[in-house]
Amino acid sequence: MAQQARAVATRAQIVLGAAELFEKQGFVGASLGTILENTGLTKGALYFHFKSKEELARCIIAEQHATSIASVEAIGREQASAIEQIVMLCHEMARQIVHDPIVRAGIRITLELSVDDQGPADPYLDWINTCEHLARRAVEEGDLEPDIDPPRFARFVIGAFTGVQTVSQVLTQRKDLENRVDDMWMFLLPGIMPAHRHPNIGRIRKARSEGAQRN
After folding, report:
1. What is the pLDDT of residue 37?
2. CA dihedral sign, ordered 21, 26, 27, 30
3. Treating both helix axes as pointing N-terminal to C-terminal, what angle do 2-29 and 53-76 enclose, rounded to 10 degrees?
4. Alpha helices in 30-42 (DSSP H)
5. Is 42 part of any domain?
6. Keywords for this entry (predicted)?
7. How far apart are the first and last CA of the chain?
8. What is the 3-state secondary structure (H, E, C) of 16-27?
9. Which CATH number do you get for residue 102?
10. Could you tell me if 96 and 213 are in contact, meaning their C-beta atoms sit under 8 angstroms apart?
11. Is 32 exposed, middle or buried, given 0-12, 13-18 or 19+ CB atoms closer than 10 A?
12. Residue 100 located in a structural domain
């Protein structure tokens, strides 16, 4: 059991060390040699768990994906309206990007590999599908205009969030990301919600998922 626990800890150490370098240097820029230096482990320890840099990168993307799925499930358990859960999803994504190097690395690797059509789309598709499901509910609950098309809306929201966090990264190293996501919803909500629901906008903008943050 002790040996198994050490193996798990070593693997986690490799993944975190690699994520830190992938985030800073990208998939191409980070070499296995620099990853080893960053983890302080031996080449044998690394190759025991991962056969190549690509396998390690795919593992990081998978962990980012798992983190996203756990957050989606936690938000789905919240006692909140669908439109509030959409806002929660965006703020939780932002929180993970700011605080979790594996999430940041997973996003960077995915975008980098996508240049050559090798990047996995699953994390983005899951976000979009979740947002679409919630948008359908929000229309039924009367919090979104009835003529809004949920699939197009979901794709737009995730695209808008991606743009917001990218600009935040360029300008402030994401230090203002929380505020910029709030700005996004400040501008969007009046245009997508029926007028008689506008008094709820302030409360909806403040929606956060405590359950997702505990995961």
Report:
1. 83
2. negative
3. 100
4. 32-39
5. no
6. DNA-binding, Transcription, Transcription regulation
7. 25
8. HHHHHHHHHHHH
9. 1.10.357.10
10. no
11. middle
12. yes
Range of the domain at 122: 57-206
What pLDDT is recorded for position 100? Answer: 93
Q: Indicate whether 17 belongs to any domain.
A: no
- The rounded Cα 183 to chain-centroid distance in angstroms is 19
Please give the model's pTM, rounded to 2 decimal places: 0.87
Q: What is the full per-residue pLDDT of the chain (215 aa) written as tens digits?
A: 567 778 888 888 889 989 999 998 888 888 888 888 888 888 888 888 888 888 999 999 999 989 988 998 999 999 999 999 999 999 999 999 999 999 999 988 888 877 666 656 777 888 899 999 999 999 999 999 999 999 999 999 999 999 999 999 999 999 999 999 999 999 999 999 999 999 999 999 999 988 777 66
Structural contact between residues 131 and 158, judged by C-beta atoms closer than 8 angstroms: yes
User: What is d(CA 215, CA 212) in angstroms, rounded to the nearest whole number?
Assistant: 5
Q: How far is CA 4 from CA 60, 141, 155, in A?
A: 21, 49, 42
| Rounded-to-integer distance, Cα 130 and Cα 85, Å | 10
Number of independent structural domains in the chain: 1
